[in-house]
Amino acid sequence: MSSTPRTAAAAALQEGEAPRERIKVTKVVDGEVVEEWIEVAASDDAPRWQAREDLRLLDSDLRRVDGPAKVTGRARYTHDVRLPGMKYGRLVRCPYPAARCTVDVDSATALPGVRVVLTIDDGETRYLGQPVAAVAADTPELAEDAVRALAVRFEELPWAVTRDQALAEDAAPVGRDGNVADVRTDGDLDAAEAALATCDATVEATYEVPVQHHVCLETHGVVVDYRGGDEATIYASTQWTHVVHRERLPERLGLEGSQVESVVEYMGGGFGSKFPTGIEGRMACELSRELGAPVHMMLTRRDEFLLAGNRSGTHQTVRAGATADGKLRAMVSEVDKLGGIGRGSHPGLPYVYDVETSHLRIRSVLTNLDSNRAMRAPGHPQASFAMESTVDELAHQLGIDGLEFRKRNLASLVYHRQLDAVAEAVGWADHPNKVGPDTSDSEVKTGIGFGVSTWGTRGRPACVVTVRIGPDGAVTVLSGTQDLGTGTRTYVAAIVAEELALPLDAVEARIGHSSYGAANGSGGSTTVPCLAPAVKDAAHKARVAVLARVAEVLGADPARLALHRGQVIHLERPDERLGWAEACSALGADGLTTTGEWVASLTDAGVHGAQAARVQVDTLTGQVKLEKIACMQDCGLPLNRLAVRSQINGAIVEALSYGLFEERVVDPDLGVMLNACLGDYKIAGCADIPEIVAMIDDEDTRGPIGIGEPPIIPTHSAIANAIFNACGVRLRSMPLSCDKILDGLVANGTWAGGEA
Amino acid sequence: MKSFELVRPRTLDQAVTELAAGGAMPLAGGQDLLGELKEHLADPERVVDLKRLEGLDGIDVDGEGNLTVGALVTLTALEEDPRVRERFPVLAEAAASVGSVQIRNAGTVGGNLCQRPRCWYYRTEDTPCLKRGGTECFSYAGKSKYNAILGGGPSYIVHPSDVAPALRVLDAELELRGPGGERRVPVADFFTLPSEGDVLKENVLEPGEIVTRVRVPALRGTWRSGYEKFRERDSYDWALASVAAALRVDAGRVVEARLCMGGVAPIPWRVAKAEQALLGPLRDESAWTAAGREMVRGAEPLEHNGYKVPLARAMIVKTLRRLTT
Q: Any chain A CB within 8 A of the CB of B239?
């Protein structure tokens, strides 16, 4: 084995000099990545990511450590929890958008197997599907029977379920202060109007985005293991293990927080909708307390659509203009967020692109529907659709291709290189119709469209991570974080294994228990920037501590020891080596425990992203066939390249499904949701997914940054632009479905079927 | 779903007796019934499982080329049968277009023909839909994207079966068995318009009566046939519009044409004038256009389904283009 030092610090140690090191750091200034070299003391006291070429595990493709458990069904999700004496809970929903209701509890308790019925809110409901009661029974089927048997007298109240209804003069009041909330303006309207008047090309359009649902594979819910006494365990399908305590669920059981352990070992998707455990969490605790028995309370699929959150809809009216040389000069926009009784999400317009002068009026329009919740890049996909469509419409008017026009209005060169990369990946150079629709005789037209994204959250001190090393060399890392499907468990183990020079399978990552330590919720792409530094810190401290103990036993200077490929080596006496397990016997019977916290220098913030979509449009039937979608995304140090690409793939699938198929349909006269099931709420399946090229921007040399949100932002926008580029039909409302394309082709006189 | 008694008869006589007792519904592949039970669109007292009946799961071709398909034959079996593929490609293609592999593995021919509508007003328990004994067809003034452009009123459902239009152009007959014995009904007479039959039903089946066999007469001469289905979502979906076509070709000319559409009307929609328009030279684009116009003549689109008129015509062109190449 070679004893050649692997780092500058090690080399300096060998030479006995005071170690100094020059390192490159990067930061984002006005959306621009700025790199600089700084000199730092190469002290072992400060954890630092190794140089990329020195990494064995991180920055490579790692298979998920829990993959086999998941695909074999060994992984226990909340839904899978079965406990002795467990009862099944169900919620009773209000079938009206607003109603006064009276629950006759006795009407269901008489049924065999029905154990308890609790009223939730014996008063007025404010949204369609709002739960009014909860039941618990011996089986899920009996619980369903109890829901149907329960007599609830509903007196329908006036309601509004559409934007038009909510804004009508005689509209039913949804909120206490009317149906419009949170009105905000930004920019100088007069200046923006004046700038608009000087533009060489202008567009005036309304872009509509429907409500999208999260459609988590595992529905929302909890299993409360309380059997009387003074302790309980709450299994929750949540993206925040500690939310159970934050929502004070222990109090609902009559217990102290310390008497309740929350468990999220595996969870089947959240996408932002599973921060709260919601009414179902609260009622499961109350039913369990009432019964002194465990309660399994998972929402039904119909519940999911009606009361478990959604991505808010958006109505965006835009007037924008550009100069003949292709610079965005003015934008006046009015944005209505449609988040039911919630406030909706939207980052505002203009979005990402530089516009010289702009004015924005943004507000929430309330309706009697379930509140929106966070959903993967909240608000950004909606803003992207309006912005990228506007950009594309102006580019087309000016006869400038979509790629060039975008570069002229994006200052950051990171976007330029990413756009070039995705353009190349979808064959832009050879694309014959770059500046306008395909006018060839071909019935099937090909189009390419682009979109960009941004995301700016950063880490913060939120996680405390513990590393335990046993005297037998067993390494365990514990964190109260959770894996909402992104591969958290794997990179937690990998960071520790990397630091201790051990193979990945030598480290066991235990997560998803509240007793494993403080951790933030997984949302806003903040898991990595909050958690990874704390894991690294704990691992770093463990390495230093192990070497110190071993040095004592060997009578060596700890600064002369290093870990390398599962061994402790002496930098000057390479023959004196100890195997890892042998070295750990020096730790004594108790082994070693270290805790790590957030270290600012171990993470960064602010990412870009670009996507291109190539589509085919059949101008006879209006059918869109996605051919290829390419994405390039920067994310600092990729902790697991395979997981990063999976994040990109998953985001693109979710976004193309949003773009092509998804829409909550509510009948405006009946106040009934018409597609609250997966037969009618259509999501993309395998046959709808094209080749996806997921690229990591390796020119970004910063520390690790979360990657969950940004790749979901521009896909549907790129598809809409590609459809226009192919066939000349501009779709200003989603989903981008064949009926609208066909209507557009007929209206444009370009339908391949001849005279309509 | 509501609790029910599961009955598993072994003979057709027993099955028919059980079904005739009232409050009973037949179960075959369960691909439609289970959804209906779970959504409380159907709340039978008793479910009669037909899967143990013998002799209804075979595909036979007799010496004269006549095809018989048992009602319990799965869509996968129909799709994969080499005789069906060779002699009646329209039927094999229609079967292959249904749902997903899993659905076709379980779903049966009889069940596909007797499945209930997909209209979301019908499928949503909270609406008092006309077809569930309510007062109004809400799609008429409501969200009508997936509803009928032809033959609608007072209900505007479309019939969801893919197999039905294929059998219609094959001039097939259905063998039915009920309390009153056995009878044969041409597919042409099996499905009923809401304005003609009982609006609560889509066909002529009497209470307790089931489809037992499909009989397809041999095609004499040289035929080309095929099924084209437009799905909004490729992975699995019902037809927004589909076309079953069968052409008898002689000396480079179409001498007999049969054309039937799915997804546009409450029944498989066959129009004689559209078929006549196709007679003549084998590959004549103007004939396809003319056939399309005849097919959608009299169409009365609702607020959100006007696109189905050009789509129907487009699918006819697509189908005939393929069959005449």
A: no
CA atoms of B169 and B189, how far apart (whole Å):
13
- Inter-residue contact A535 to A495 (CB < 8 Å): yes
pLDDT of residue A34: 44
Per-residue pLDDT, averaged over A731-749, amounts to 97
**A621 vs B311: CB contact, 8 Å cut-off?**
yes
pLDDT band for A119, please (50, 70, 90 cuts): very high
Question: What's the complex ipTM?
Answer: 0.97
- Across the interface, whether the CB atoms of B292 and A753 are under 8 A apart is answered yes
The residue whose two tokens read 């944005």 is A335
pLDDT at A110 over 80: yes
Nearest CA in chain A to B99: A679
Paired tokens of B297: 């003549």
Is residue A5 over pLDDT 60?
Answer: no
Interface contact flag, B289 A753, Cβ < 8 Å: yes
Q: Report the pLDDT value the prediction gives residue A35, as an integer from 0 to 100.
A: 52
E strand or H helix at A36: strand A32-41
User: Taking CB atoms and an 8 Å cutoff, what residues of chain A touch B308?
Assistant: 739
Nearest to B120 among A145, A623, A674 (CB): A674
Measured in angstroms, the CA of B142 and the nearest CA of chain A are apart by 7
Mind listing the domains of chain A with CATH numbers? Answer: 8-65+459-602 (3.30.365.10), 81-93+98-158+220-298 (3.30.365.10), 313-457+604-748 (3.30.365.10)
Residues 63 through 122 of chain B touching chain A, CB cutoff 8 Å: 100, 118, 120-121
* Per-residue pLDDT tens over the stretch B276-316: 999 999 999 999 999 999 999 999 999 999 999 999 999 99
The pLDDT of residue A463 is: 96
d(CA A193, CA A205) in angstroms, rounded, equals 16
In terms of pLDDT, which residue wins out, A471 or A755? A471
Interface of A to B at Cβ within 8 Å reads 95, 141, 144-145, 148, 620-623, 660-661, 665, 667, 669-670, 672-677, 679-680, 682, 684-688, 737-740, 742-743, 745-746, 751-754, 756
Domain topology for B1-53:
3.30.43
Pairing of strands B46-49, B5-7: parallel
Residues sharing a CB contact under 8 Å with residue B140, sequence separation 6 or more, in sequence order: B152, B153, B156, B302
Q: Domain B59-114+162-216 classified CATH 3.40.50.720?
A: no
Average pLDDT over residues A111-137: 94
Domain ranges of chain B: 1-53, 59-114+162-216, 223-323
More reliable by pLDDT, A12 or B245 = B245
**What's the pLDDT score for residue A45?**
72
- Residue A348 tokens, joined: 């505002």
A27-41, A628-642, B41-55: lowest mean pLDDT where?
A27-41
Q: What is the pLDDT of residue A37?
A: 60
CB atoms within 10 A of CB A600: 13
Select from B252, B298, B238, B249 the least CA-distant residue to B271.
B298
Tell me how far apart the alpha carbons of residues B7 and B15 are, in angstroms, rounded to a whole number.
9
Q: Tell me which chain B residues have a C-beta less than 8 angstroms from the C-beta of A623.
A: 230
For residues A38 and A22, the answer to whether their CB atoms sit within 8 Å is yes
| Residues B230-249: tens digit of each pLDDT | 999 999 999 999 999 999 99
Would you say A495 and A639 are in contact if contact means Cβ atoms under 8 Å apart? yes
Contact check, Cβ <8 Å, B123/A679? yes
Please give the Cα distance from A38 to A330 (Å, whole number): 41
Candidate from A45-54, A495-504, B234-243 with smallest mean pLDDT: A45-54
C-alpha distance from A345 to closest chain B C-alpha (Å): 27
